[in-house]
Amino acid sequence: MIMLHLNWTTFFAQPWWVLSFCYPLIHITLLNFRERNRWGSSLHPPIPYLLRTYCLGIFVGAVLSGLFSLFSVTFPFTLYEFYLVWLFTLIFSIAGMRFACFSYAVTCCGFLHLLIKLIPFVPDLSTFYYQWWKCLQQFPLRNWLWLVALLHLCEAFLVRIDGSSGKQIIEQKHLNQQIVNGFYFSQVWPIPLLLPTPMGLFPCPFLLSFSDLNLSRTIRRHQRQSGTIYFLYATGLVCLLILSSFYPIITYAALFFTLIGHEGLYQWRCYQERKMTPLFISNQKGLRVLDVFPHSPADDMGIRNGDILFRLNGETVRTIDDVTTITQKAAYCKLEVLDEELDHHNLQRPLFENDPYHLGMIGAIADQSEEDEQKEQSI
After folding, report:
1. Residue 3 falls within a domain, yes or no?
2. How far, in Å, CA of 96 to CA of 89, rounded?
3. PDZ domain: from which residue to which, for each copy (predicted)?
4. Angle at 202 between CA 200 and CA 208, to 5 degrees
5. Are 266 and 334 in the same domain?
6. Proportion of the chain in helix, strand, coil states, percent, rounded to 5
């Protein structure tokens, strides 16, 4: 059994604990501000969203810490290394929440470690700077990459069950030059760990961040696919690290794979989404629902994002303006809706005085190609 020889109060007072739980708070606050500024109301109630994010992160951290202790895994990490990783995490997060993932910080430390190893001499440094130089020179790259791989296996699980929680409605230019709607997935999880080290159990949190673009698939399908891709990425990294046990030079291949795989997958998926047939547009089938405000008439009737509203009170609907025009002169609404599986549903509800005319729905923009064809035919 690993005995604890460290003062836990000292470690829990470290700034990374505050930062790790502040990042999700900042992320969710900004998301809520954008939604209220754009739509006048919040699509994601911030308190339940924040609590779910914290609880999932703590759960994953507890399970992983338990597995480390169960299998007597020890990481030869030092306090200076944690400071370096969190310093680079803080710096990279300035470029965007997507870069707050600690894998970017670890790869940066890894490349600095590789660069220092190539320098044939030790520069004349003061004691303070020499400690940091020595830290990078002795940086246990392979152990840190193992931690990256294991945490990204956990991230695959988190993406699969919670990756769409922070989805934002966007307008994106497709490769066919058409403006389409879609979703930008963005999520940050704090993962508090108890890492077994030669000094004892070391309490330290890490950040996992996830970002993705979806223009062509249903939310659930895209979320499952993203989780699978992250799982394959983490599995590939694990395979490289296993091989590095026999051929140490492969550790550097794993370092390059960590960075190129992580960032390359994101860029490749964004490019592929812009090439594929857009899903979130309103066309001759009807009005595509992007999202529904909580406790709105549409929410009460069970309308969900991805549904297609094609008839309201017997009239064909293609845009949210059509919905507004019809409900302004109605005391009751009867909707005909297709869900994501294209199953037909009939919904109805009385309209009250304070109900919004759009029924609490956010509709996708109309298919511009169809509008252009209609204009040409009219000419």
Report:
1. no
2. 11
3. 289-328
4. 150
5. no
6. 55, 20, 30
- Tokens 């009737």: give the residue: 301
Chain-centre distance for alpha carbon 33: 18
Q: How many domains does the chain have?
A: 2
Is 193 within 8 Å of 203 (Cβ atoms)?
A: yes
pLDDT at 10 over 60: no
**Sheet containing 179-197, strands listed edge to edge, beginning at the edge strand earlier in sequence:** 168-173, 179-197, 200-214
**Rounded to an integer, what distance in angstroms lies between the CA atom of residue 181 and that of residue 216?**
10
Domain that holds residue 355: 287-378
What is the distance between the alpha carbons of residues 111 and 255, in angstroms, rounded to a whole number? 8
User: Residue 213: beta bridge partners?
Assistant: 184
Let me know whether 247 and 329 are in one domain: no
Q: Please list, in sequence order, all residues whose beta carbon lies within 8 angstroms of the beta carbon of residue 225, skipping any fewer than 6 positions away.
A: 217
For residue 205, give Cα distances in angstroms to 53, 57, 177, 263, 366: 14, 10, 43, 22, 45
Predicted TM-score of the model (pTM): 0.89
* ∠ Cα 337 343 348 (to 5°): 35
In a shared domain, residues 175 and 323:
no
- Which of these three, 237, 253, 275, is where a domain ends? 275
Q: Which two tokens stand for residue 219?
A: 């939310």
List, in sequence order, every residue forming a beta bridge with 169; answer none if it has no partner: 183
Is there a domain that residue 50 lies in?
Answer: yes
Query: How would you classify the pairing of strands 344-350 and 287-292?
Result: unpaired
CB atoms within 10 A of CB 91: 13
Contact partners, residue 154, CB within 8 Å, separation at least 6? 60, 63, 64, 191, 208
Helices (H) and strands (E) in the chain, counts: 12, 9
Q: What is the mean pLDDT of the chain?
A: 89
The model's pLDDT over 245-289, given as tens digits with 9 standing for 90+, comes to: 999 999 999 999 999 999 999 999 999 999 999 999 998 889 999
